[in-house]
Give the backbone structure.
Amino acid sequence: MAVVFQRPKSLCDVPTHYCPGCTHGIIHRLVCEVMDEMDIAGNTIGVCPVGCSVMAYDYFACDMIEAPHGRAPAVATGVKRAKPDSYVFTYQGDGDLAAIGTAETVHAATRGENIVVIFVNNTTYGMTGGQMAPTTLPGQITQTTPYGRDPKVQGYPVRVCEMLATLDGTALAQRVAVDSVPNIRKAKAAIKKAFENQRDKKGFSIVEVLSTCPTNWGLSPTEALERLRKDMIPYYPLGVYKDKSAEEKEAAK
Amino acid sequence: MERNLMKGNEAIAEAAMRAGCKCFFGYPITPQTEISAYLAKNMAKNGGLFLQAESEVAAINMVLGASSTGTRVMTSSSSPGISLKSEGISYIAASDLPCVIVNVQRGGPGLGGIQPSQADYWQATKALGHGDFHILVFAPSSVQEMVDMVTEAFDLADEYRMPAMLLADGLLGQMMEPVSFPEKRTEFSPKPWATDGHKNKREHNIVNSLFLQPDVLQNSVVKRFERYEEIKEKHAQAEVYLCEDAEIVVTAYGATARVAKSAVNAARAKGIKAGLFRPKTLWPYPEKRLNDACKTAKRVLCVEMSMGQMIDDVKLALECRIPVEFFGKTGGVIPTPTEVLAQIEKYAE
């Protein structure tokens, strides 16, 4: 009998702690499918953040490190510089990457650190119960913006891909979403491109994945996907913000 | 053996390379910058890596990453920078990772000054980060000792899977002395716990400090403290000088111990039975050696470049059986042998 669907080898056969309807599971799977297809799990070291995916070290079957909050790009830098021939990726949420870890993110990018960053943007601090994140949309109600985020008081959200695309060290900055089958396929292609960039020593590759948090948004999983499409994508447009290898190909024509 | 005239900071850097340090991550701060400068010049030539980080916070986390792969790694800083590293040091200790951290102390608190100080004793030995943990703390008193202790720090850090600190000060870092180096280390014990890629030959390794179940976390801390007991037993070190018949024992470490030694010699010349107890490790503190050194002592005088921090450990070790006096200068002021001698004379009467 032909096997049409199975768990990727790089994904551990364990139950996860993620809430029902959360899209972390899809994103984990995409990273693992890419590791399987490139046959690199034995030579890959992943770095977990502090946030909902803090325990992802139990889910990825490659060697894993749990980093202090926001410091994953610095930890990944240490790993990559010590073992330049290995594949290194970080898996970070929006609070980890775009608030407490902004400096580490920006400087890993500008150094052209040859790593992959999987950036999961769900506009909230999920693990601590839904506080305002650097990516929380104007007007969005959270535990710490109970009357809605007011830019006059709490400032504006950070658009990470747009910001990092300005840096010379960034090889790939692409925003994708996991709300639909076509978008999930695009997300996987972007993650694969990021790992291929690392193989080809192109530099810093970040894939921002628009994700949902049904629990803290107070929505059903389907409603949460609707919100992603209706509210998030207009503020965080999907697309490629920087692609050095495509630019090089274009220039070579 | 070949002897070179070298600055303390540069000697630390050369000793680290010879001890097999393959990665260094740092951030500029006075008075330790020569360590970075030396390694920036020489690390790549020796097959290693020097990287200037965007912050002390990033530097210590790069150390965490490199150490996770089983690589010998070092960072260095001075007092305010060590405060910034404390988050990472706690994680490194909790993840059972080895590394060497150099603190060339300057005056504090706050931005403080850039002159020598010993005001980070409490921080190094008792409060280097949140949570229950210790790191090894070496206190060199000469440039040669900086070399010897860096080498030992790398070895013990690996053996016990924990961070080791070289607690120096601006005086030692900037001072030049003749020094000889050990041969370059080429063989190291294996690190089967390292996250360096499993090559599909073993289960995946995890470097982690998160344990959500209280009993599991407690067990991991207790196991670490069992190792600490062994370290206390085996690796507490001190220099004991003229204490056999001493009625007054001066305790001092690092650069201050050099000043104290001059004062002890001057006191002996005046017929005062003075001795010097110099801890070479501050954690573990050489408690038994101190008690042995104080067998004939009527008084102990603790001299520090601080308002009095090591004195706590001296009193604890002696269980307050002998009166312990204090003399200190702080903020970058260095006590003179004349001042220390005056204190010895005062308490010897």
Summary: Chain A has one domain: 24-143+150-252. The mean pLDDT of chain A is 97. The two ends of chain A are 46 Å apart (CA to CA). The first strand of chain A starts at residue 44 and ends at 48.
